[in-house]
Amino acid sequence: MNLSSLSSLQWNFIAGGLAIFLFGISLMGDALTNFAGPKMRGYVEKYTSNPIKGVLVGIVITGLIQSSSGTTVIAISFVRAGIMSLEQAIGVTLGANIGTTVTSILIGFNLEYFSYFITLIGVIIFMFSAKRRNKYIGEILIGFGLLFIGLQMMGDSLKELKDIPGFEDVVANMGKKPILGVLIGAILTAMLQSSSAFIGITQSLFASNAIDLGVALALMFGANIGTCITAILASLGGSLSARRTSLFHVLFNVSVSLIFLIFLTPYQALVEILSSAIGASKLMTIAVGHFTFNFIGMVIFLPLIKYVARLLRRLIPGRDSILTDLGNIELDEKLIDTFPAAALDQTKTAIIQESVVALENIKAAKSFLNTKDNKHYETSKEAEAMVNDMDTKIQAYLLNIGQSQTPPEIEMDIQTYLQVQINVERISDLSENLVEYFNEIHESGTGYGDEAIDDLNDIFDLVINNIAKAIEVFETEDIAEHNRLAEDEAALDLMEVKLRKSHYQRLKKGVDMTSMASYVYNDILSTMERIGDHAFNIARITVDPVKTHEGVQIEDEYGEDLY
What we know:
Largest sheet: 2 strands, antiparallel
Number of helices: 25
Oligomer: single chain
Structural class: mainly alpha
Helix content: over 70%
């Protein structure tokens, strides 16, 4: 085929159609995600207790957000946080591969004529609705309509391919050597960064009789391999969990593609039989093939999840971080009514785990200040998300205990634990604030001198010491340790004042420091001091809670109720 002959194609419509198609998928996926709400992550965590449930969740979530990569990212974050096992994440990934076939199935319905009206309805809803959820519905309809409009633009232009001299020879060669089709599909999908887009193009080519079913299926195999590049790129420099999950994605798509390539003839016959049985159009035939490919692959791998996970851990040995072992807290609902004292013990253990995660957050902040390494920034974000998740679970569990028939001493402990974990959550929040301050400074390309850095490290060390002591006091109820912490808290207050004065003296001397870095320096010191206050609150509440008629009430230094 002469490449110059390709100039006869309407590349402007092909490019424009592809852009509209990709934008439609993205818009619909984002709108569905927003419509589903922030509880989506909670549903993923709740309903993935075993790999089979994980598969179902992966199907549903990917069908909603229109992105298998997005679902995989959620699973990866849960694995690293210790909320989900690698085995469960593999199940979610298997489900995500099936869920991603939703786009090709939608295309198979061939709603080109109605797509324009669907888009119009979506625009009207979006423009004239005041409620945010209604606007999301409008965006969903707009994205859905644009998907078909973009595909039609591409399809009309791609139909001309079969009339180009030499194209039939290329197609015939791919028919004889399907591995060539696999390579083409993989390369083009990797370039497009969207398997849905390339499979949509494949559907259009098959529907226009430009290629036969065998070639279309080979291209589809290649698309499934090419889409792995997204996961690979996303995992570069990432956690062990990210790399293991990415590796599984590659192993699954490559191995299943090779199996189907070997048995291409019987597989093609199966697709033809299934398509004929349901009266599928040519567009839907490829969707049937796409679904069958991923479904059979899931059936093959599902019984092998435990062994695959073991293999992945051997291929990529090691562990992510201390956070991985801390995120999975044990809170048995059955104990609330049968043995409330044991339920309370579980809560205390969970709060200690939450406290250690918060401690790791501020340690990450210190490391980020000194190294400027973004891995510490990501660790802080992970720790904060984990603390928030643990905080929600612990509060709900404590309130459930409180609603049961509990003796007065347990009721008192419930009040205390609620206050403690609130302070823990605030320590994590403030630690993340520090990380954001440092990120602003790093991104500005400036920073502090050695003297200022040394001062910040000194106050960091004291704050970290105070948090560690506070955790110990909560765990042991040691009065002597509480008293030592009270002295360290007083020392922290004096250090903050001293460092503020030192900072002022440096500015008077004209030490080179950007206005931005100078501005946030005092904010950093103030944040450190507040973290120290919350740490001392934990110890103080543990040893000597303040009683009121309503229960227990503790105020921080700003007069804010901690309970």
